[in-house]
Amino acid sequence: MQNSDQHVSFRKRVVAFLQHWVALAGHSFFEDPVGAAFIEEIYCAILEDSRDQPQLLAELSAVEQLMQERERALGSSTRAPVILLDSGTVRDLPINSPALPFDLCIIKVHCVEAHRTSTLKVRSDIKCDSLRRLAAQKLGLGNGEGVELVELKSNGEKVTFSSDDVGVPSSMSHNGRLFACFKDQIDSLVILPEQSGPSESVHSVILETLSSAELAQHLLIYHWQLFHNTHEYELLYQTIGRNRFPGRLPVNLDLFVRRFNELQFWVITEILLCTALSKRAHLVKKFIKIALHAKNSHDLFSFFAITLGLSNVAISRLSQTWEKVSTKFRKQFFEFESLLDPSRNHRAYRLLVAKISPPVIPFIPLLLKDLLFIHEGNKTSFEGMVNFEKMHMMAQTLRNLRAYKAHAPAIDASKVSPEAQHLVHNFRVIDDQRKFIQMSKALEPRMKDS
Length: 450
Hints:
- By secondary structure, this protein is α+β, with helices and mostly antiparallel strands.
- It has three domains: 2-77; 83-196, Roll (Ubiquitin-like (UB roll)), CATH 3.10.20.90; 204-449, Ras guanine-nucleotide exchange factors catalytic domain (Son of Sevenless (SoS) protein, Chain S, domain 2), CATH 1.10.840.10.
- 56% of the residues lie in helices and 9% in strands.
- The protein has helices spanning 2-25, 27-31, 33-50, 57-77, 128-138, 168-171, 204-209, 212-229, 232-240, 251-272, 277-296, 300-311, 313-316, 319-323, 327-338, 343-355, 364-377, 388-404, 418-423, 433-443; strands at residues 83-86, 89-90, 104-111, 116-123, 147-152, 158-160, 177-182, 381-382, 385-386.
- Strands 1, 2, 3, 4, 5, 6 and 7 form a seven-stranded mixed β-sheet that branches.
- Helix 1 (2-25) packs parallel to helix 4 (57-77).
- The radius of gyration is 25 Å and the shape is globular.
- The protein starts with a helix and ends in a 7-residue tail after the last helix.
- The mean pLDDT is 92.
């Protein structure tokens, strides 16, 4: 009798542990073939044992639910791939599913010889070495021997990818372009005209037709989708090393971080492309109002991206523009800026987050910074023993991330315009700080700038 009770107790604990594990790992648990097979093995064992042990019927029901989750996860894993990025522009995001490593990206690879370009459709998790050989073949550069893949950014910076890098298309900068060239050609790479970004606003209709509240709402909807799709594990992949997790790729995190930069650049771009002083001041005021709505909706992602954009030196030096902004809005913005204060480990931001309840779309760059600080500042093991203190610190950051998405934000579907929602998915931006400064000085030159 005692053995029978122990037998039941052991199985109850195994099922409880398994439920907790799946709840933490989510879709990632079933992406691993071993995990998917393990669920089935446990199900068969509990099914057989429950015939003689009716005390296990509740556990059988629990494992059946896990099997249903497994089937749903495997179903999404066998869906048709979508094109996530088309030459750097977000094209399709899966509906009711995160982006997965087999989803596709369309990327142009340029060649300095004869100014050739090849457009490739590749998996988002393609290894740099495979992409390099494919590009070399398409561009007539032989088998790829000696060929380097280099991102040329709009500011002239060059980034050479290593052969074991993964997810190149989703990790590039907004106006960066990919070149396949030999090592001795890297220094001769020249920025393409298209990398300069827009010369006039292509989004003025959004800013003119939508109110600040409406724009903030549309940003909230899109950013919640990106955040909800980003699993906590992806932050670990990024922190510990993208190439150290075969078959895994933080592609949703890539899209999320990319969007943060895009929104920040968009604020700067729109203001600097506005040549009329009064209109420019109105635009600054509107972005402050959007940031306020975002903060009140707990969309700290949008709030800080907009605030950082307005804090950029190319905008902050526009004294004539800021003089046209009312004292009320300038004071409001100074309060926003104070939340960016990095002193005392970003205490102002952390106090803000502690005061608000989920759902929250967080300031993702700071979360990544926290994890990187923990990872690089603490040894994973010491004298053959695992540093569990480090694990607990990283786990706490990830628990916070999970808590932020405990439930979805309340969204009034009747106020959501599909057309406007589509428009806010991609912003054409300038992403070169030197160009921002040049544009700023051209708008409002000072004596010492002349």
